[in-house]
Amino acid sequence: MGKVYPDAAAALAGVLRDGMVIHSGGFGLCGIPALLIEAIRESGVKDLTVVSNNAGIDDAGLGLLLKTRQIRKMISSYVGENAEFARQFLAGELEIEFNPQGTLAERIRAGGAGIPAFFTKTGVGTEVAKGKETREFDGETYVMERGIFADLAIVHAHTGDTEGNLAYRKTARNFNPMMATAAKITVAQVEHLVQPGDIDPDHIHTPGIFIKRMIACPVGYEKRIEQRTTRKRTAPAAAGAESLA
């Protein structure tokens, strides 16, 4: 069978299991693999550890898995937009491993590069460094952080060919490329599925060797906007109102 599957449930068949570690790409609702998240919800798997910059919002993205109590632990950076996340955390119902955002990105990248651990100055002397090894380099103290390698990575791309080569669009790239490299199996959902050779090789962000399965988003796939911010419309200047002075 090729890499392209008919839908998200088929692409995740035989992959999901209770207690697994999942990388989930995206930032808020930008670049999230929403169809794959929904398929995970429908599968009923539980006790998941999910690595994601944040947990989306209450009624979309990873918020759906929080609502069904399928997530046991989150490894995240920013979690301020999800009320259910906060409720579960404060009630002691959800385990959280907080990370500085750059540290989280590097932990994932390191996992994909086969680097088990690295040292960083970020978090030294704070709660982030509590219980972790520290070491001095050139007179400065650094804290050791472990790389993260998941059982499954789910990512979203703008364009992908049938060989699994992916191209992301603008800020929707975010955590997707590094997560795609850092799991035993990576499943991608793509907005535009094309043939090999249709993507300029210089524009490929994730080589197909990292992608084991993929699906094409259906026509009319909705990409939700977390917070829409626009300027107030101003009235146009009246014709001939310019000063002649």
TrEMBL record:
<dbReference type="InterPro" id="IPR012792">
    <property type="entry name" value="3-oxoacid_CoA-transf_A"/>
</dbReference>
<keyword id="KW-0808">Transferase</keyword>
<dbReference type="Pfam" id="PF01144">
    <property type="entry name" value="CoA_trans"/>
</dbReference>
<feature type="compositionally biased region" description="Low complexity">
    <location>
        <begin position="235"/>
        <end position="245"/>
    </location>
</feature>
<feature type="region of interest" description="Disordered">
    <location>
        <begin position="226"/>
        <end position="245"/>
    </location>
</feature>
<dbReference type="InterPro" id="IPR037171">
    <property type="entry name" value="NagB/RpiA_transferase-like"/>
</dbReference>
<dbReference type="GO" id="GO:0016740">
    <property type="term" value="F:transferase activity"/>
</dbReference>
<dbReference type="InterPro" id="IPR004165">
    <property type="entry name" value="CoA_trans_fam_I"/>
</dbReference>
<protein>
    <submittedName>
        <fullName>CoA transferase subunit A</fullName>
    </submittedName>
</protein>
